[in-house]
Amino acid sequence: MLDMGSTSPGNIAFFTGHGHKNYSEDLLRSSLDPALRKQNDAGNSVIDSKKFLDENLLYPNAHFDVVLCWNLPDYMEESLVKPTIDRLWSVLKPGGFLLAFFHTREAGPDSTCYRYHVTDTDMLEMQEVKFAPPGRPASEKQSPRLQRVFNNRHIETLFRDFASIKFFLARDSIREVLVVR
Fold first, then answer.
1. What's the pLDDT band for 110 if we cut at 50, 70, 90?
2. Which of 39, 71, 101, 146 has the fewest beta carbons under 10 Å from its own?
3. What is the DSSP letter of 136?
Protein backbone atom coordinates (compact mmCIF):
# COMPACT_ATOMS: atom_id res chain seq x y z
CA MET A 1 0.00 0.00 0.00
CA LEU A 2 1.22 3.49 -0.90
CA ASP A 3 -0.03 6.42 1.18
CA MET A 4 0.52 9.66 -0.77
CA GLY A 5 0.28 12.02 2.19
CA SER A 6 2.82 13.00 4.78
CA THR A 7 3.78 10.19 7.13
CA SER A 8 0.89 9.29 9.41
CA PRO A 9 1.72 7.07 12.41
CA GLY A 10 -2.01 6.31 12.69
CA ASN A 11 -2.25 5.11 9.07
CA ILE A 12 0.93 3.05 9.44
CA ALA A 13 -0.37 1.40 12.62
CA PHE A 14 -3.81 0.78 11.10
CA PHE A 15 -2.58 -0.83 7.88
CA THR A 16 0.34 -2.77 9.31
CA GLY A 17 -2.03 -3.97 12.05
CA HIS A 18 -4.15 -5.46 9.26
CA GLY A 19 -1.12 -7.21 7.72
CA HIS A 20 -0.32 -4.69 4.98
CA LYS A 21 3.12 -3.35 4.13
CA ASN A 22 2.88 0.44 4.11
CA TYR A 23 4.88 3.03 2.14
CA SER A 24 4.44 6.81 2.52
CA GLU A 25 5.46 9.50 0.07
CA ASP A 26 4.46 13.13 0.56
CA LEU A 27 4.25 14.25 -3.07
CA LEU A 28 2.57 17.55 -2.28
CA ARG A 29 5.48 18.68 -0.12
CA SER A 30 7.96 17.30 -2.69
CA SER A 31 6.24 19.24 -5.48
CA LEU A 32 6.90 22.52 -3.64
CA ASP A 33 10.70 22.07 -3.69
CA PRO A 34 12.21 25.25 -5.20
CA ALA A 35 14.94 23.10 -6.83
CA LEU A 36 12.25 21.76 -9.22
CA ARG A 37 11.64 25.20 -10.75
CA LYS A 38 13.16 26.16 -14.09
CA GLN A 39 12.68 28.89 -16.68
CA ASN A 40 10.64 28.02 -19.76
CA ASP A 41 11.27 29.49 -23.23
CA ALA A 42 9.16 32.55 -22.35
CA GLY A 43 11.22 33.19 -19.21
CA ASN A 44 8.47 32.10 -16.81
CA SER A 45 9.21 29.98 -13.76
CA VAL A 46 7.69 26.51 -14.23
CA ILE A 47 8.07 23.19 -12.49
CA ASP A 48 10.25 20.55 -14.13
CA SER A 49 7.90 17.54 -14.23
CA LYS A 50 10.62 15.24 -15.57
CA LYS A 51 12.93 16.07 -12.65
CA PHE A 52 10.01 15.65 -10.26
CA LEU A 53 9.31 12.13 -11.54
CA ASP A 54 13.03 11.30 -11.63
CA GLU A 55 13.11 12.00 -7.87
CA ASN A 56 9.70 10.67 -6.74
CA LEU A 57 7.55 7.55 -7.04
CA LEU A 58 10.59 5.38 -7.75
CA TYR A 59 8.98 1.97 -7.38
CA PRO A 60 8.96 -1.09 -9.64
CA ASN A 61 6.05 -1.53 -12.02
CA ALA A 62 3.03 -3.34 -10.54
CA HIS A 63 4.38 -2.98 -6.98
CA PHE A 64 1.26 -1.82 -5.07
CA ASP A 65 -2.19 -3.28 -4.49
CA VAL A 66 -3.58 0.03 -3.18
CA VAL A 67 -2.67 3.71 -3.53
CA LEU A 68 -4.24 6.33 -1.27
CA CYS A 69 -3.94 9.44 -3.41
CA TRP A 70 -6.19 11.51 -1.10
CA ASN A 71 -6.72 15.09 -2.40
CA LEU A 72 -3.31 15.41 -4.06
CA PRO A 73 -4.53 16.30 -7.61
CA ASP A 74 -6.50 19.30 -6.34
CA TYR A 75 -3.39 20.85 -4.77
CA MET A 76 -0.55 19.92 -7.16
CA GLU A 77 0.52 22.19 -9.99
CA GLU A 78 -1.32 21.34 -13.20
CA SER A 79 1.81 20.23 -15.06
CA LEU A 80 2.46 17.48 -12.46
CA VAL A 81 -1.02 15.97 -12.15
CA LYS A 82 -1.27 13.82 -15.30
CA PRO A 83 2.37 12.59 -15.19
CA THR A 84 1.88 11.64 -11.53
CA ILE A 85 -1.35 9.74 -12.26
CA ASP A 86 0.37 7.99 -15.17
CA ARG A 87 3.21 6.93 -12.85
CA LEU A 88 0.69 5.70 -10.27
CA TRP A 89 -0.95 3.58 -12.98
CA SER A 90 2.39 1.90 -13.66
CA VAL A 91 3.24 1.19 -10.00
CA LEU A 92 -0.23 -0.28 -9.32
CA LYS A 93 -0.77 -3.98 -9.93
CA PRO A 94 -3.43 -4.91 -12.48
CA GLY A 95 -6.67 -4.96 -10.51
CA GLY A 96 -5.13 -2.63 -7.89
CA PHE A 97 -7.16 0.20 -6.34
CA LEU A 98 -6.52 3.93 -6.13
CA LEU A 99 -8.59 6.16 -3.84
CA ALA A 100 -8.68 9.92 -4.49
CA PHE A 101 -10.71 12.82 -3.12
CA PHE A 102 -11.73 15.83 -5.21
CA HIS A 103 -13.45 19.09 -4.26
CA THR A 104 -16.93 19.39 -5.77
CA ARG A 105 -17.03 23.18 -5.78
CA GLU A 106 -14.62 26.08 -5.80
CA ALA A 107 -13.77 26.86 -2.21
CA GLY A 108 -11.45 29.73 -3.03
CA PRO A 109 -7.67 29.85 -2.92
CA ASP A 110 -7.68 29.87 0.89
CA SER A 111 -9.51 26.56 1.21
CA THR A 112 -8.12 24.25 3.85
CA CYS A 113 -5.98 21.34 2.71
CA TYR A 114 -6.38 18.26 4.88
CA ARG A 115 -4.31 15.19 5.67
CA TYR A 116 -6.42 12.10 6.23
CA HIS A 117 -5.82 9.56 8.99
CA VAL A 118 -7.63 6.22 8.96
CA THR A 119 -9.02 5.59 12.45
CA ASP A 120 -11.35 2.68 11.75
CA THR A 121 -12.60 0.63 8.82
CA ASP A 122 -15.18 3.33 8.02
CA MET A 123 -13.78 6.46 9.69
CA LEU A 124 -11.25 9.13 8.70
CA GLU A 125 -9.83 11.86 10.86
CA MET A 126 -8.88 15.10 9.12
CA GLN A 127 -5.91 17.27 10.08
CA GLU A 128 -5.11 20.60 8.44
CA VAL A 129 -1.92 20.62 6.36
CA LYS A 130 0.29 23.69 6.56
CA PHE A 131 3.72 24.31 5.03
CA ALA A 132 6.00 27.33 5.12
CA PRO A 133 6.26 28.67 1.56
CA PRO A 134 9.67 28.05 -0.03
CA GLY A 135 12.21 30.53 1.29
CA ARG A 136 9.96 31.65 4.16
CA PRO A 137 10.41 30.98 7.91
CA ALA A 138 8.61 28.00 9.47
CA SER A 139 6.50 30.44 11.51
CA GLU A 140 4.73 31.50 8.29
CA LYS A 141 3.04 28.17 7.63
CA GLN A 142 -0.07 28.20 5.48
CA SER A 143 -2.38 25.69 3.85
CA PRO A 144 -1.35 24.77 0.28
CA ARG A 145 -3.33 26.60 -2.37
CA LEU A 146 -6.20 24.80 -4.07
CA GLN A 147 -5.09 24.76 -7.72
CA ARG A 148 -8.34 23.76 -9.42
CA VAL A 149 -11.64 21.92 -9.05
CA PHE A 150 -11.98 18.92 -11.35
CA ASN A 151 -15.43 18.14 -12.75
CA ASN A 152 -16.45 14.52 -13.44
CA ARG A 153 -15.38 14.70 -17.09
CA HIS A 154 -11.89 15.91 -16.11
CA ILE A 155 -11.57 13.14 -13.53
CA GLU A 156 -12.64 10.53 -16.09
CA THR A 157 -10.02 11.89 -18.52
CA LEU A 158 -7.35 11.90 -15.81
CA PHE A 159 -7.97 8.20 -15.10
CA ARG A 160 -8.79 7.12 -18.68
CA ASP A 161 -6.11 4.40 -18.72
CA PHE A 162 -7.60 2.66 -15.68
CA ALA A 163 -10.07 -0.24 -16.04
CA SER A 164 -12.92 1.34 -14.05
CA ILE A 165 -13.85 4.44 -12.10
CA LYS A 166 -16.58 4.95 -9.50
CA PHE A 167 -17.70 8.26 -8.00
CA PHE A 168 -19.16 8.69 -4.51
CA LEU A 169 -20.39 11.99 -3.11
CA ALA A 170 -19.04 12.51 0.39
CA ARG A 171 -19.55 15.14 3.05
CA ASP A 172 -18.02 18.61 3.05
CA SER A 173 -18.22 19.08 -0.74
CA ILE A 174 -15.82 16.22 -1.43
CA ARG A 175 -16.16 13.57 -4.14
CA GLU A 176 -14.55 10.19 -3.43
CA VAL A 177 -13.22 8.44 -6.52
CA LEU A 178 -12.25 4.78 -6.56
CA VAL A 179 -10.39 3.59 -9.64
CA VAL A 180 -9.17 0.13 -10.59
CA ARG A 181 -6.14 -0.49 -12.77
1. low
2. 39
3. S
Cβ atoms of residues 69 and 99 within 8 Å: yes
The CATH number that applies at residue 128 is 3.40.50
Inform me whether the pLDDT recorded for 48 exceeds 70.
yes
Residue 170 belongs to domain spanning: 2-180
CA distance 19 to 26: 22
Q: How many residues does the chain have?
A: 181
What mean pLDDT, rounded, does the chain reach? 91
The count of structural domains within the chain is: 1
* DSSP state for residue 36 in the 8-state scheme: G
35 CA to centre of own chain: 20
| Radius of gyration of the CA atoms of the chain, in A | 16
Question: What is the distance between the alpha carbons of residues 102 and 166, in angstroms, rounded to a whole number?
Answer: 13
